[in-house]
Amino acid sequence: MSSIFKFGEEVKGYNIRVLNEREIRAGAGLLFVFMFIAILSAIMQGSFTLLKYAVLIFLADMLIRVLVNPKFSPVLILGRFFVRNQVPEYVGAIQKKFAWVIGIALAVTMFILINVLNTFSFITGLICLICLIFLFFESAFGICLGCKFYSWIYKEKAQYCPGEVCEIKDRHEIQKTNFAQWIVVLAFIGYIVLTVIMFNDKFKEPPHELFSGKSLEEMQQEQ
After folding, report:
1. What is the DSSP string of 10-49?
2. Separation between Cα atoms, residue 92 and residue 161, nearest integer Å
């Protein structure tokens, strides 16, 4: 029983329990896609059905991670499957637990407001945005925002952070960003803005079918 209800794994060479960051990032990516589609459905179509299911799934998975064992989390199991051929990257379990407790708090709030009370407001919109930001940073950049809060609140340095960001060290040359690179980024942003200004009206025109020349609206009327 004790082997089931525990948080983190004991790995030789590590003095604390750890988790595999690669499967956590994969799981965050899966949740991000699901939540993003559900939120988009609510915004674009006014249908909250998928979002209600997404909140329920998100909450259940987080509860399993924290109250039972992360290795029994369905989302993390899928994440483990997708990255099974990658070398594990071990990270400290305790800061991940703190981050997932934050996830539970957000999910419970969403569950009460959307699933139980069947309401929506700027509060639900804000929580959805926070969840997406947390999941995106984890999956895209390997940055656990909840883990950052752990260090701030408990005033102690977390151990075995993703990419060894907890360790004080100089960045490698390949990691440094110079002035010319930032100029390129700013120029690219300018290119995007200029494109929107010049071609926005053109891009708004509905496309026509390549061979018949008919617009999408005309084809729908024929059907």
Report:
1. --TT-SS-EEEHHHHHHHHHHHHHHHHHHHHHHHHH---H
2. 6
> Which two tokens mark 70?
């992360």
Determine the 3-state secondary structure of 84 from DSSP: coil
Question: Could you report the per-residue pLDDT of 56-106, keeping only the tens digit for each?
Answer: 999 999 999 999 999 899 999 999 999 999 999 998 888 899 999 999 999
pLDDT confidence of residue 158:
66
Write down the residue that tokens 């002035």 correspond to: 179
List C-alpha distances in Å: 46 to 39, 41, 109, 130: 10, 7, 20, 20
pLDDT of residue 99: 92
pTM, 2 dp: 0.80
**Conformational region of residue 206, where left means phi above 0, alpha means psi within -120 to 50, and beta covers everything else:** beta
Residue 203 has pLDDT above 90, yes or no: no
Tokens linked to 129: 């945005």
Neighbours of 20 (CB within 10 A): 22
Burial of 183 (0-12, 13-18, 19+ CB in 10 A): exposed
Instruction: Give 161's DSSP letter.
Output: -
Run of H or E including 75: helix 74-82
DSSP 8-state secondary structure symbol assigned to residue 92: E
Neighbour tally for 143: CB within 10 Å: 17
